[in-house]
Amino acid sequence: MTITIEVSRLGLLYDKSAKALDDVTFRLEGGKIYGLLGRNGSGKTSLLSILASFQQQTSGEVRIDGEAPYENERIVNQVCFIQENGYLSESFKVRDVIKLASDCWPNWDADYADRLLNQFELPAKKQIMALSRGMKSALGVTIGLASRAPITIFDEAYLGMDAPSRYYFYEELLKDYMEHPRTIILSTHLIEEVSDLFEEVLILDKGKLVLQEEADKLRSRGSAIIGPADAVDQFAEGLTILSEQKLGGTKSITVFGELGAEREKRATADGLTIGPVSLQDLFVHLTRKGIGSDERKHG
Ligand SMILES: Nc1ncnc2c1ncn2[C@@H]1O[C@H](COP(=O)(O)OP(=O)(O)OP(=O)(O)O)[C@@H](O)[C@H]1O
């Protein structure tokens, strides 16, 4: 099931001095895996917690499936919001939490939850307080996946998990999403690890939405160029250089912006190799201090 999320001129003030969210507007058609990126304190959790009805905005509107989500029973159980360690009562046992979750989300798949608990080696009788940080994260991830909620949000929910568990989660997420298409929003600082999953990317910076773009299109706005140093320098004239490295007579640079067919043709003639740039490198560039909004939009 695909549910549209519409956010219009959203603002959030925790106190009068600082805007956690400032005039944020976007629309998610749904049925995709979205990456929500932003530096520390950029407003990701604030935004996601409003979408999940955990708190109310100060200004602006949110519509999920056409309705305001806050204290809206019909919408609340369509959204599963998983935060690292965010919602678990420490004295509960794993099986109590699973039972609660199964009551919350109408699409809950109990067999799938059991399989995931097994895979993550989470003992049903253990109390939450006796779980390690990684095990708590794995429990959150289990709930998020098994909820099969039409909108499932993972807010840094897998940070505590070790690398094999995280990779298992990424694989499982993709497999389950293909079998049961729904809207997934992943907020993460582990961009390199997760970016292949993203179909669309949103970037927040200091409470403002600075970019919403298809992941492939965003990737195409950056390029890595390698070749003889002189030729690379000539090629780079007028482009925004994100990073550069020189080894002997060879130079490699990463650049931001459309290259254009003419420049690409010249590059090949000059013996330069053009390759892709990671989303992480582009993110670092787009959220670095002093980047103007025109550059974000037009490259
Ligand atoms: N409960 C709160 N009371 C006051 N200010 C808050 C509260 N929660 C968040 N903030 C402030 O709101 C801003 C956005 O915080 P938020 O947690 O949404 O950012 P984030 O992008 O999720 O950050 P991180 O990546 O570090 O988790 C920050 O300036 C933060 O200090």
UniProtKB/TrEMBL annotation:
Pfam families noted in UniProt: ABC_tran (PF00005)
An example Gene Ontology molecular-function term: ATP hydrolysis activity
Keyword Oxidoreductase: no
Domain ABC transporter: from-to ranges: 5-231
Keyword annotations: ATP-binding, Nucleotide-binding, Transport
Protein name: ABC transporter
InterPro entries linked: AAA+_ATPase, ABC_transporter-like_ATP-bd, ABC_Transporter_VariousFunc, P-loop_NTPase
Organism domain of life: Bacteria
Translocase found in the keyword field: no
